[in-house]
Write a structure and sequence with these properties.
The protein has about 475 residues and is an alpha+beta fold. About 55% of the residues lie in helices and about 10% in strands. It has 22 helices and ten strands. The strands form three sheets. Strands 1-2-5-4-3 form a five-stranded mixed beta sheet. Helix 3 packs antiparallel against helix 4 and helix 6 runs antiparallel to helix 7. It is globular and about 70 Å long. Bound molecules: manganese (II) ion. Manganese (II) ion binds next to loops.
Length: about 475
C-alpha cells in the first residue's frame, strides 16, 4: 500500500462523519508530537502506526472517540502523557478507551509471564465494559501483523501464534470476520510459510479453473431472479487461505471443501430471501443436509443468512448464501456493523446486543468472579469461551456450551433447582450418565426429583462451565 497520510484518514472519515474532522486532526497532531523522535522497526516515524490503526477503524465507520483513541492508543504506554491529561484535552471516553488498550506496566510484575497473563486478562475483561476497546486492539494487532516483516523471526512466530490463539478468536466472537480472515492468513504466513504458499497457489488455480462455471451460474441466477422481479446483487468469495489450511489439516481434499467457493446473493429485504432460495433450488439441486437457516436462528454473534450447498454447472459444489445488505454488513463486521447504522451512538447498541445475545458475556462475568489468579482465569476463558463449542437442544431451547460440557452443565444452565434436583439425563432418547460429554446437536432432557440427594464433589470434575461449578460448590458448601 502507498504510504498512508493524515489526508487519507480525513477523507475516509469524511465519507461518513464530516462534522468531526477537526477533532481527528487534533488527535493526530497531538499524538504526532508526543511520539516525535520515536521510530518503528521499519525505520518510519512512529505516528505511521496509530494513523494506520485509525484508518482501519475508519473503514468500519468508527465513531469519533474511537478514531481519536486509535490515534492516541500508544501514548500512555510510550510517552509521558497521563490519562487525566487526555481526558482534559479530549474527553473521558477517549481517555478511557486509550487506557483500556494500554498494557499494565511491567513494574507491577516479577516475571514476563505474569505480566502477559495480567494483560491478557485485561484485554478479555475489557469486553464487559466497552466493546470498542477490543475492536481498537484488533485493529492495532492487524496493523502490527501487516508490518511483521520488520521483526525478528522468533518474534514473528510468537506474535502469529498469539494472534491465532487469542485475537482471531475474539474477532470471531464479536463477528468481525473481515479482520479475522486477514489476521488468520497473516499468521499462517509466518507460522508455516511453505504451506501458506502452496495453498495460496492452489487457491488461485481453483479460482481460475472455476471462473467459467461460476460466470455461467451467476448469469443463470441473474436471469432467474430478474424473471421473478427480485432485485438482487451477486458476489463471489473464495475461502481464505487459513480456512482452506484448516480443512486440509482435518483430512479434507480440496475438492471436498464444499464452501471453497461461495456465491452471495444479496436481496433487498428479508421477504425476498426465501423465494430466492426456492428458485435457486429449482435450478440447482441442493445437498439437503447442508442447508442452514441462520435467518430464523441467528448465530450468537448476530450472523444471519441462508446457506445452501448446490450442485452447480458441471456438478461442482458451490455454497450459496442469501441475505440482505444489512445482514451482509453484519457478516463482515459483526457488532461493529452498528457503526454504519448509527455512527455516533453505536457503542451503546453494540454493548446492549452483546450483553443480551451472546452467552459469552454472562460466562465472562462468572469466570471473572470465580478466578482470582490471572493464569487460571485465562486458561478457563480459553477452555470455556474461546475453545471449540457445541450446540445442544434442551427442554428450554437451544443452548451453546463449551466442548466437554455434560448434562450437569445443561441442568445448572437451565436453573439452579434443576441442577440440585437432578437424578438423571436422557440424551437423544436414551438414558445416560449425568457426566457424559455431550456432542454437537445432542438432544438433552434432564430428569429431576424433589427427593434427590443433590450434588456431590465428584460433579465438579464432570462440568465444563464455571457457572455449574459455582452452583455445585454453593450447594455442597465448599
Ligand atoms: Mn499499537
Amino acid at each position: 500500500m502507498e504510504k498512508l497520510t493524515l489526508n487519507d484518514l480525513l477523507a475516509k472519515v469524511a465519507e461518513y462523519n464530516i462534522e468531526n474532522l477537526e477533532i481527528v486532526k487534533k488527535a493526530y497532531y497531538y499524538a504526532e508530537e508526543l511520539h516525535r523522535g520515536q521510530k518503528r522497526q521499519s525505520g518510519e516515524d512512529y505516528i505511521v502506526h496509530p494513523l494506520n490503526v485509525a484508518y482501519i477503524l475508519a473503514e468500519m465507520y468508527a465513531d469519533k472517540d474511537t478514531i481519536c483513541a486509535a490515534l492516541l492508543h500508544d501514548t500512555l504506554e510510550d510517552t509521558e502523557i497521563t490519562k487525566e491529561q487526555i481526558a482534559k484535552d479530549f474527553n473521558e471516553t477517549v481517555s478511557y478507551l486509550v487506557d483500556g488498550v494500554t498494557k499494565i506496566s511491567r513494574m507491577n510484575f516479577s516475571t514476563k509471564e505474569e505480566q502477559n497473563m495480567a494483560n491478557t486478562r485485561k484485554i478479555i475483561t475489557s469486553m464487559r465494559n466497552d466493546i470498542r476497546i477490543i475492536i481498537i486492539k484488533l485493529a492495532d494487532r492487524l496493523h502490527n501483523m501487516r508490518t511483521l516483516q520488520y521483526k525478528s523471526e522468533d518474534k514473528q512466530k510468537e506474535n502469529s501464534q498469539e494472534t491465532l490463539l487469542l485475537y482471531v478468536r475474539l474477532a470471531d466472537r464479536i463477528g468481525l470476520h473481515v479482520l479475522k480472515r486477514e489476521l488468520e492468513d497473516l499468521s499462517l504466513q509466518y507460522i508455516n510459510n511453505d504451506e501458506y504458499n502452496r495453498i495460496k497457489e492452489m487457491r488461485l488455480k481453483v479460482a481460475e479453473d472455476s471462473k467459467e462455471c461460476i460466470q455461467e451460474m451467476l448469469g443463470t441466477i441473474n436471469d432467474l431472479l430478474n424473471n421473478q422481479n427480485i432485485p438482487h446483487e451477486e458476489m463471489v468469495r473464495i475461502k481464505n487461505i487459513y480456512g482452506i489450511y484448516k480443512k486440509i489439516q482435518r483430512g479434507y481434499r480440496l475438492t471436498e471443501i464444499h464452501d471453497l467457493l461461495s456465491l452471495k446473493v444479496i436481496v433487498d429485504n428479508i421477504n425476498d430471501c426465501y423465494p430466492t432460495l426456492r428458485w435457486i433450488h429449482w435450478k440447482y439441486k441442493p445437498i439437503n443436509r447442508k442447508f442452514k437457516d441462520y435467518i430464523s436462528v441467528c448465530k450468537p454473534n448476530g450472523y444471519q443468512s441462508l446457506h445452501t450447498t448446490i450442485f452447480g454447472e458441471d456438478g461442482r459444489l458451490v455454497q450459496t448464501q442469501i441475505r440482505t445488505p444489512q445482514m451482509n454488513q453484519v457478516a463482515s463486521y459483526g457488532l461493529a456493523a452498528n457503526w454504519g447504522d448509527y455512527p455516533e451512538n453505536a457503542n451503546l447498541v453494540m454493548q446492549q446486543e452483546w450483553k443480551t445475545n451472546d452467552p459469552f458475556y454472562d460466562s465472562l462475568v462468572e469466570i471473572d468472579s470465580q478466578y482470582a489468579n490471572d493464569k487460571e482465569f485465562v486458561d478457563q476463558v480459553y477452555r470455556e469461551l474461546l475453545g471449540d463449542r457445541i450446540s445442544v437442544y434442551t427442554q428450554t431451547g437451544k443452548l451453546e456450551l463449551p466442548k466437554g460440557a455434560t448434562p450437569i452443565d445443561v441442568a445448572y444452565n437451565i436453573h439452579t433447582e434443576v441442577g440440585n434436583n437432578m437424578v438423571g439425563a436422557i440424551i437423544n432418547g436414551k438414558e445416560a450418565e449425568i457426566g457424559k460429554q455431550l456432542k454437537q446437536n445432542d438432544n438433552v432432557r434432564i430428569i429431576t426429583d424433589d427427593t434427590s440427594i443433590g450434588p456431590n464433589a465428584s460433579w465438579l470434575t464432570q462440568t465444563a462451565t464455571t457457572k455449574a461449578k459455582r452452583k455445585i460448590k454453593e450447594a455442597i458448601r465448599i
